[in-house]
Hints:
By secondary structure, the protein is mainly beta. It has helices at residues 22-30, 51-57, 145-148, 195-203; strands spanning 7-11, 18-20, 35-36, 43-47, 74-77, 83-84, 88-92, 98-108, 124-134, 154-162, 173-178, 184-187, 213-215, 224-225, 230-235, 241-247. Strands 1, 2, 3, 4, 5, 6, 8, 9, 10, 13 and 14 form an eleven-stranded mixed β-sheet that branches. Strands 7-16-15-11-12 form a five-stranded mixed β-sheet, with no helix packed on it. Strand 1 and strand 2 form a beta hairpin. Belongs to the FAH family. Keywords: Isomerase, Metal-binding. This is 2-hydroxyhepta-2,4-diene-1,7-dioate isomerase. Its cofactor is Mg(2+).
Amino acid sequence: MFSVADHLLHVEGEALPRDVSTAAVRSLLAAGTRCRPPVSGAVYGTLLNDRHALEALGAAVNAAPYKAPPRAPILYLKPRNTHAGHRARVVVPGSEGVQVGASLGIVIGRTATRVAVHDAFDYIAGYTLVADLSVPHASVYRPSVRFRARDNFCVIGPAVVARRHVADPDQLAIAVNVEGSASFTATTATNVRGVAQLLADVTDFMTLAPGDVITLGVPHGAPVVHADARATIVIGDWAPLEIEFVAAGVAQGEPA
């Protein structure tokens, strides 16, 4: 089992995560606390689960070799080297920049295999923010490891919010704020599959373990940033997730 009573936060330098109140999370973050990811399981990204992303593809979804929109979730793994926590430093590998995909992370509470839609929420421990980062690229059906699996390209946290605090995960506002740029806004309401349906469809062919995370998917039009940018990601009224982007050759992981 993976359970969360309130807000699970893993402060950098501490051996284990803490389960604390909303007020405690905000107090710690206001003091400049840096965090490790609050989860340690596998993290799976989901592609093309946003209606606007499918609409933007237009007729391309009916072209060879696939000839139709996806009939099942398109998943990819965010391997362990990508996992980073609140206030992480992320290296921008080239002139293309880094796309900052803000996604709702669904944190699994108990072993989930062939879960029915009406039972899906019983398998969820809580939710977290996931900054699913990638080098901008055109491939949508075959996610590229080279573009999506670079070090620190999956920033998670700051905390896992207990399921009981989230009345409707399919109606949450999302914002990406980059210093000096207009805020990017989206909502989980535009997803093709909501939380329960996504969990049912994924566990129809694979088992999810306690502590695993599956993202609901990145909204279409996510902003691209370059070195020296700072981004703050927010979902609903949760504590924000902060990321610093640096040029190659600058040490990763530690805040300025």
